[in-house]
Amino acid sequence: GDLVNANSEWTAAHVIQVHETRPEKIVTIPRGVDFAAFDPDKVTPERIDAIRTAWGIAPDDTRVRLVLPGRLTSWKGQGLAIEALGALDSSERANLHLILPGDAQGRDRYVRELEDAIIAHQLGGTVSIVGHTDDMPAAYALSDIVVAPSTRPEAFGRVAAEASAMAKPVIVADHGGQRETVIEGQTGTRAEPGSVTALTACIRTLVTLRPEARAAMGIAGQAHVRENYSKKQLQTATLGVYARLLLNNETVEN
Question: What is the DSSP letter of 57?
Answer without folding.
Answer: -
